[in-house]
Amino acid sequence: MTLEVEASPRPALRPNAELVHGILPILVCSVLWGTVGLVSVYAPAAASPESVGAGGMIVAGTLMLAVRPGARALIRRARGRDRLLLVVGSFGLLSYPLAFFPAVRHLGVALATAITLGSAPLFAGLIARFVERRPLTRRWLRCAPIAVAGTVLMVVGDASAHAVSMFGVLLALIPGLAYATVSTVAARLIGQGSASKDVYGTMFGTCALWSVPVLLLCGAHGLGSVRGIAVVLFFGCVTNYLCYTMFGSALRYTGAATATTVTLAEGAVGTLLGVFAHGEHLATLAWAGLGLLAAALVLLSLPKRAPRATGSRTAPLN
Q1: Are 40 and 106 a contacting pair, CB within 8 Å?
Q2: Long-range contacts of range 190-197, CB-CB < 8 Å, 24 or more positions apart?
Q3: Alpha carbon distance 136, 162 (integer Å)
Q4: Do the beta carbons of residue 128 and residue 136 sit within 8 Å?
Q5: What is the spatial distance between Cα 274 and Cα 43, in angstroms, rounded to a whole number?
Q6: What distance in Å separates the CA atoms of residue 53 and residue 207, rounded to the nearest whole number?
Q7: Rounded Cα gap, residues 244 and 183, in angstroms
Q8: Contact 286, 157 (CB under 8 A)
Q9: End-to-end CA distance of the chain
Q10: CA 12, CA 72: separation in Å to the nearest integer?
Q11: d(Cα 299, Cα 261) in Å, to the nearest integer?
């Protein structure tokens, strides 16, 4: 999962500073995010996917609130619409692992990862159009059918090789919607002047609160074992707390368009780990669908062109 942060002045860059302090940390985050599905497979059999997800969010949210006083202050001062947005965002964060981990059990790592990450930009566009009443861009309208076709080909192609759970497909779409919702909420709050680390710290902290009853309801069976503790700590400390912190810092050294392109590695890593590390099989048609999906995501992430200058004036960048 990636995040959006507010634009901030970049420091004066030394040679290779963008690569060392910007692109490489983002690539590391993307690779770690891509391992989430595979790591969840190694949770103890006695542990439910929901309890693993809830446990990880409790760890991440507690850490973020503990080290970010601005997040605690934002919880205290939020009122009305802002408080509602924070609640919606926190539920979005919680629903991601609660749906994604069961989807991995139903579909496998490769297919679940591809559907989740491929659907997120589509849901983001639909939220922008029908919730925020913003017109869809021509690029989105061109890329969305390609992404949908790629996802359909992946499901149909995989179904030709073995039975595919439609319930699992639905579960894999939920975290895509959750990610799009969280990104939209965060962008709205950041646009109002809140720091990104405080917004995400508040949402993760509130999510930790909602995760407690989920863990009590599902039970912590197996989470006290060595493997259970390792998976929960990896999910909470590494892929959430550490990666979100690194990603936010890295954006001071590179542009949003570059960062978005680099994070496409997350889907590739997750899918390839499912195939080559977990021994899953994708049919030829599914690979073709994955190619279409990747092409659509790359086209969506490309930076916008600057309009041509007219006369002696300098055209502003989009």
Answers
A1: no
A2: 190/4, 190/5, 190/6, 191/6, 192/82, 194/74, 195/6, 195/70, 196/3, 196/4, 196/5, 196/6, 196/248, 197/5, 197/68, 197/70, 197/71, 197/245, 197/248
A3: 37
A4: yes
A5: 15
A6: 11
A7: 13
A8: yes
A9: 25
A10: 31
A11: 9
Q: 190 CB contacts (<8 Å, ≥6 apart)? A: 4, 5, 6, 196, 199
Alpha-carbon span 71 to 73, nearest angstrom: 5
Q: Where are the domains of the chain?
A: 17-135+173-280
188 vs 81: CA distance, rounded Å: 11
- In degrees rounded to 5, what are phi and psi of residue 281? -125, 130
CA 244 to CA 184: how far, in whole Å? 16
Can you tell me which residue has the tokens 């970049």?
10
Residues sharing a CB contact under 8 Å with residue 52, sequence separation 6 or more, in sequence order = 40, 43, 97, 101, 223, 228, 231, 232, 235
Query: What's the mean pLDDT in 272-276?
Result: 92
Confidence at 267, pLDDT banded by 50, 70, 90:
confident
Computed on alpha carbons and rounded to an integer, the radius of gyration of the chain in Å comes to: 20
Q: Is 79 helix (H, G, I), strand (E, B) or coil?
A: coil
What does the pLDDT read at residue 311?
46
Q: Is the pLDDT of residue 313 over 50?
A: no
Place of tokens 């591809």: 114
Cα angle 100, 168, 226 (rounded to 5 degrees) comes to 45
- Residue 187: which pLDDT band, with cuts at 50, 70 and 90? confident
Residue 238 CA, distance from chain mean position? 14
Q: Average pLDDT over the chain, rounded to whole?
A: 86
Calpha distance 175→220 (Å, rounded): 22
Structure confidence at residue 312 (pLDDT): 40
Task: Give me the percent of the chain exceeding a pLDDT of 90.
Answer: 49
* Residue 147 to residue 229: CA distance in whole angstroms: 37
Rounded to an integer, what distance in angstroms lies between the CA atom of residue 280 and that of residue 27? Answer: 24
Q: What's at 137, amino acid-wise?
A: T
Which CA distances in Å does 197 have to 42, 167, 245? 30, 35, 8
